[in-house]
Amino acid sequence: MGGSAPLPSEFRFIRRHFSALAGEGALGLTDDAALVRPPKGRELVIAVDTMVESVHFLPDDPPDTVGRKLLRCNLSDLAAMDATPLGYLLSVTRPHARGEDWFAAFAAGLRDDQAHYGLALLGGDTTATPGPLVLSLTILGHVRPGGALRRGGARDGDDIWVTGTIGDGALGLRVLRGELADASGVLARRYRLPEPRLGLGLGGIASAAMDVSDGLVQDLGHLARESGLGAWLDAASVPLSDAARRAGPGWLPTCLTGGDDYELLLAVPPDHEAALRRAAARGGVPVTRIGRFDRALKGVEVRDGAGGTLALDRPGWSHL
Amino acid sequence: MGGSAPLPSEFRFIRRHFSALAGEGALGLTDDAALVRPPKGRELVIAVDTMVESVHFLPDDPPDTVGRKLLRCNLSDLAAMDATPLGYLLSVTRPHARGEDWFAAFAAGLRDDQAHYGLALLGGDTTATPGPLVLSLTILGHVRPGGALRRGGARDGDDIWVTGTIGDGALGLRVLRGELADASGVLARRYRLPEPRLGLGLGGIASAAMDVSDGLVQDLGHLARESGLGAWLDAASVPLSDAARRAGPGWLPTCLTGGDDYELLLAVPPDHEAALRRAAARGGVPVTRIGRFDRALKGVEVRDGAGGTLALDRPGWSHL
């Protein structure tokens, strides 16, 4: 060849949009892999989440919220384990029609959230696709060895708690599809920008935890099954936002099964209630008791508050 | 709902195909994240690689080789850093038409390679797509702190070495496309199943390394640029397999720029030659000297062995 080798377009793309996001250990995003030194005496936590255009986000969602949503969904997995964020890797599978402006805004959103949540990009991969945009994010966190909250730790008689409010994300999707009105904008914002409940310090307080991503009833079913228990849920106790209440009671099943909440679902022994309330107050996050684990039940019973049970078409959302 | 909650189809899919691959720390693939305890006193290495159907593999490639190729490409990144495999996460973005049999064979291939290379599945994500199959694999390895081989460490006068043979993968793709004949089957096999050069113990011997994935000339350009040097390459010295030689000299540019080699490209000080040869012999991997880093050159000069330089249409492969 001779002469200075030009950077291939893939490298220029990475340099343009992602170099500013790279943290220590990322080696400038120019090496074969990244280096990670977990903080001394801590255990690593790792998870991956993938979002597909038109499946997990809408083609006309603002690009800065797409990156932030992807990062926040992954951060929510760390929150569910009581872990602290460390860094992430990003795989971008890019259709040709998706332009530079879109990725500039996408990366700007990530930069804002990185600063807010205290982590940085470690590495990634960029490739072309004839199909829709696919974004895959691998997140790394750390936790006290043996201290990670798990799904299988709930005990018979533990109360069921949730953080924040349930259903806003699912209703927000309906708002963006034009199926529901919400002048406040709260619901659409909650769909696009979930708030991972990091840093609550629930280790030693909760006996089990997971984040609510695929629908409250279905996800509670997972927590119960992994713990070898059944559970009941009082539908009237499930915390709803003002915007969700305004939508009306006909939307309650959507709230209970719709997914996209990214709130924490917790199993808490009754005598840990005060400690839970203190931790939640410190973190500025509301918590609400919505039911109980019960070994006498099979699966999840959704009670209607009038002595009956609520029939739901489906418990939640499957990605296949 | 009442009654035992059925597993959503996504969970059944994971259980059917991937539970058998799960290692320690994967938490049965049922939790929000996986736990990783790096071996005491070791630094973690992490990388992600994504493959898209029709871009990185052919729709009719045997499914067991698709999973193995994805894993091996990632293992090759670890090899380039002189790291030891630890585990991996897998994200499957699945078109509806891609059936169960395909994934059963895909997972069987992964299972074989896991056992061979000594690592296990830690976690993942599964989701549907209206587009082509996208497979994203995040690999974890470990290395002596400070001992990772990097791209930027080459010094003026270091010799350039490669492991194995160059060009077989690129020619194999042409064979599978019907553009080239190879009765031996060697070339197609090398395209489908690269051999990551793990465990050679090149730390302290090589001053820089990377794996050749996007074309020898282009990748050498990266190594040179990251090291602030130029380099020359003697085309006649580049090691070719018997099958590649049989293809004829007209295919040499394809070998030099085609990619999919997954051999190691090394910068080695001349007085480390004996140590390199010993390490390679222990690992049963041939190594060949093909050029030298030279601060007086800009970029990569490909010499033709007759006092001239070789003109190449492009140095390698860009993924965008």
Automatic annotation (TrEMBL), chains A, B:
Keywords: ATP-binding, Kinase, Magnesium, Metal-binding, Nucleotide-binding, Thiamine biosynthesis, Transferase. Substrate binds at residues 56, 260, 317. Mg(2+) 3 binds at residues 32, 77, 211. This is Thiamine-monophosphate kinase. Catalyzes the ATP-dependent phosphorylation of thiamine-monophosphate (TMP) to form thiamine-pyrophosphate (TPP), the active form of vitamin B1. Mg(2+) 4 binds at residues 32, 77. Residues 155-293 form the PurM-like C-terminal domain. It holds the Pfam family AIRS. NCBIfam families: thiL (TIGR01379). ATP binds at residues 124-125, 151, 213. The gene is thiL. Pathway: Cofactor biosynthesis; thiamine diphosphate biosynthesis; thiamine diphosphate from thiamine phosphate: step 1/1. Reaction mechanism of ThiL seems to utilize a direct, inline transfer of the gamma-phosphate of ATP to TMP rather than a phosphorylated enzyme intermediate. Residues 31-143 form the PurM-like N-terminal domain.
